[in-house]
Design a protein that fits this description.
Radius of gyration: 18 Å
Shape: globular
Structural class: alpha/beta
Strand content: 15-25%
Helix content: 40-55%
Oligomer: single chain
Bound molecules: D-glutamic acid
Strand order of the largest sheet: 4-3-1-2-9-10
Number of strands: 10
CATH topology of the largest domain: Rossmann fold
Largest sheet: 6 strands, parallel
Order of helices and strands: EHEHEHEHEHHEHHEHEHEHE
Number of domains: 2
CATH architecture of the largest domain: 3-Layer(aba) Sandwich
Length: about 260
């Protein structure tokens, strides 16, 4: 049995990345871990998230994964460096808000970033802004509560649309032309966001870029799966398996199969 790639997030948000990985690397076996018991990460302390990130990576290591994708901006902000230091023999692929691509494509130089508080307050984000903020204005908007609603399967609910509207209006008032979705839960709201923003605002997420980076890393290390057969995707969670499965079934285009609860 070929070694799998481990992908995780605080909940089901990282499935927005998993969808792209599955398209690009469909011969890989993938384990997806939704840390639903601890969702949302955005309101936890940096220490708590670091602890979770290390625990989940430890679980993946015990399953002999050949690489780990941290499909969560908040976890990467809080703990990516630490996870890399602690797991030097496993390649760790992270995510970050698409500020660089936004800088490259904005026409009026006005960029909005919607993300969790923790990501926006982190040092990694300040460095991104310092690096790619030249000649553009970056307006940030924390969105507490939004990832939770997506995680609970309420992405199309009036409550979610109200909340989205509330968070997007301040960015629209700044006349942004490019919006960065700085949380992996938000791509599941892309249609609703586009509707509120109008068709002229370009909305960026990182799914495809992370999938391509994962392929590059596996190729570079010579550990790409054999192309002969299709890989499998299996789901794990720290939360309640049946409710996670229910939500997964609304966003995962294949059969979800069983969701295994892991007590870590
Ligand atoms: N999906 C996550 C992110 O990209 C975390 C959201 C949360 O748990 O607060 O930041």
């Amino acid at each position: 049995m070929p070694y799998p790639v481990g992908v995780f997030d605080s909940g089901i948000g990282g499935v927005s990345i998993l969808l792209e990985i599955r398209k690009l690397l469909n011969h890989e076996n993938i384990m997806y871990f939704a840390d639903s018991f601890w969702c949302p990460y955005g309101t936890k302390s940096v220490e708590q998230i670091r602890g979770r990130t290390l625990k989940i990576t430890e679980f993946f290591a015990s399953q002999k994964v050949k690489a780990v994708v941290v499909a969560c901006n908040t976890a990467c902000s809080a703990g990516l460096d630490l996870v890399r230091i602690n797991n030097q023999d496993i390649p760790i692929i992270g995510v970050e808000p698409a500020v660089k691509p936004a800088h490259d494509i904005t026409r009026n130089g006005r960029i909005g970033v919607l993300s969790t508080n923790l990501t926006l307050q982190g040092q990694k984000f300040s460095i991104l802004v310092e690096k790619f903020g030249n000649g553009v204005e970056i307006f940030t908007q924390p969105a507490p509560g939004l990832a939770d609603l997506v995680d609970q399967g309420k992405k199309d609910s009036p409550e979610t649309l109200d909340m989205l509207n509330r968070f997007l209006q301040p960015l629209l008032a700044r006349e942004i032309d490019t919006l960065v979705l700085g949380c992996t839960h938000y791509p599941f709201l892309k249609d609703a966001i586009q509707k509120i923003c109008g068709k002229d605002i370009v909305i960026l997420d990182t799914g495809l870029a992370v999938a391509k980076q994962t392929e590059r890393v596996l190729r570079y290390r010579n550990i790409l799966g054999s192309r002969e057969e299709e890989g499998t995707v299996s789901f794990y969670t720290s939360g309640e398996a049946s409710s996670v499965k229910e939500v997964l079934e609304t966003i995962w285009p294949e059969s979800v199969g069983s969701v295994t609860r892991v007590d870590i």
